[in-house]
């Protein structure tokens, strides 16, 4: 669908299938979106940039609205605009927490791998 850092030009609505938000070089699935869900609104609204990748897990059919179309729709339906902004803010907040935790776990794993390698190197020196 899109990669971290890509230009945010559309919001996507899932008609069928499944989309995974994938974070880090380890391709950790952070969240899955299914039929009836939408994603990409955080970037369109401007709360965050594309800080994560989105990949189809299975055959997926999507509908999309460009940023311009989506903004026009929000102007026509202000009640929905408020609700979507609140959902986007909540998602952005939860996403930042998840990404912080993943970063910590990856750093911890890398640290433990370096520590394990140092142990193995010292054992090899004994042989």
Which residue ranges are poorly predicted, with pLDDT under 50 across at least 5 consecutive positions? 120-127
- Amino-to-carboxy terminus distance: 51 Å
Tally of domains = 1
Q: What is the CATH T-level topology? A: Jelly Rolls
Question: Could you give a short account of the major beta sheet?
Answer: 3 strands, antiparallel
- Enumerate the strands of the largest sheet in spatial order, edge to edge or round the barrel: 4-1-6
In round numbers, the mean pLDDT is: 81
Rg calc: 20 Å
- What structural category do the secondary elements indicate? alpha+beta
* Tally of helical segments: 3
Strand content: 25-35%
The name of the CATH architecture is Sandwich
CATH class: Mainly Beta
Compact overview of the structure:
It contains 3 helices and 6 strands, in the order E-E-E-E-H-E-E-H-H. The protein has 127 residues and is an alpha+beta fold.
